[in-house]
TrEMBL record, chains A, B:
SUPFAM superfamilies: Winged helix' DNA-binding domain (SSF46785). Residues 1-150 form the HTH marR-type domain. The lineage of its organism: Bacteria, Pseudomonadati, Pseudomonadota, Alphaproteobacteria, Hyphomicrobiales. The keyword rRNA-binding does not apply. InterPro entries: HTH_MarR-typ, Metal_resp_HTH_trans_reg, WH-like_DNA-bd_sf, WH_DNA-bd_sf. PROSITE patterns: HTH_MARR_2. This is DNA-binding transcriptional regulator, MarR family. The keyword Transcription regulation applies. Keywords: DNA-binding, Transcription, Transcription regulation. It holds the Pfam family MarR_2. GO terms for molecular function: DNA binding.
Length: 167, 167
DNA sequence: GACATATAGTTGCAATTGATACTATCAGGA
DNA sequence: TCCTGATAGTATCAATTGCAACTATATGTC
């Protein structure tokens, strides 16, 4: 492992700029801004709204909780995105006949038109983000991000477990 | 509800889960949450406050705009973090004798104690995040993130340039 | 059928963040 | 000196997000 010394010895030398989580955050913010500008500027879509539309896509009818499962958003987030999209008339909500707690969400014609318009744009951005990376580098990047992400999720789990015990 | 029911246009199929910027965001959120929980739960520090403290560190006296330069935060963010840290008595603000617009910020004793306490904890998290990556993998990950980040920053620049031209 | 429990989704409140505009101070001429 | 423009930092308002409490349906047990 490349970490220079043991963790108690180099307090003096702490540099935010070379702190891994800081770099991740700056990286993530840049990527996120580049993509979200596209759908924000063009259609005033927030990230949650975009994700909701992206998951529904063409010909999909899903309940809010199915969207939650596929989007790494929580239900509050989805609920609000749905409201906003209904207001814009990009999305229609019906009630499930078999379980009246459930909603049946799908894009409207108008929403679908936006979706069709936005997809190629965000794909272009996606391509531009990785244009100078070989296919192999892209694969490696994704694999390493996943590994780190799993570690992070493990840590988060541990912490909330401790918090639950602690009290 | 089958996607496959009507998929004459499968080429057009868009899967959020395999969209690169989406993955980056999920990755970033996980990493960020893992680290920020440490200083949030222990000292109620926000990300901006933590960054500000991390940059000041030991024996550093900086102005707010010097913190801006080193933190990828904007000045509003820094200004608010400074206020919050003063209220917690983690940070002291004086006025620069030579340029009375400038502040001279440094950690108090109390702030320094917190800093000394937090640093090993966040370093542990940093180490845990990458524990199953070889030194080489870590270096590759950082290098690839930087490349993508540069691309993203380029795109953001183009967009705001266009926006300025546009209308 | 009635009660306890779980699930789907919404609402309200508080903390964070971002964009814009504002105040105070400085620096460089005419 | 006075004017202009830059710089340092603050204040204001709107959008986003997270947490917890709430309503409504459904399910399982007796």
């Amino acid at each position: 492992m490349m970490v220079t010394a043991n963790n108690t010895m180099d307090k003096e030398d702490f540099q935010l700029g070379s702190f891994f989580p800081y770099k991740v955050r700056v990286f993530g913010t840049a990527v996120s801004t580049a993509v979200s500008s596209v759908y924000r500027e063009r259609y005033g879509l927030s990230v949650s709204e975009w994700r909701t539309m992206a998951i529904l896509g063409r010909n999909q009818a899903l309940s809010a909780s199915e969207i939650v499962e596929r989007s790494s958003m929580d239900k509050v987030n989805v609920s609000r995105a749905v409201q906003a999209l209904r207001k814009k008339e990009f999305l229609r909500r019906d009630i499930d006949g078999e379980d009246r707690r459930k909603s049946v969400l799908r894009l409207t014609e108008k929403g679908l038109a936006v979706f069709n318009d936005v997809i190629p744009l965000v794909r272009d951005v996606e391509a531009a983000l990785t244009e100078n990376l070989s296919a192999e580098e892209q694969a490696v990047l994704l694999k390493l991000m996943e590994k780190v992400q799993k570690n992070a999720e493990g840590l988060i789990g541990e912490m909330s477990a401790e918090a639950a015990n602690g009290a």
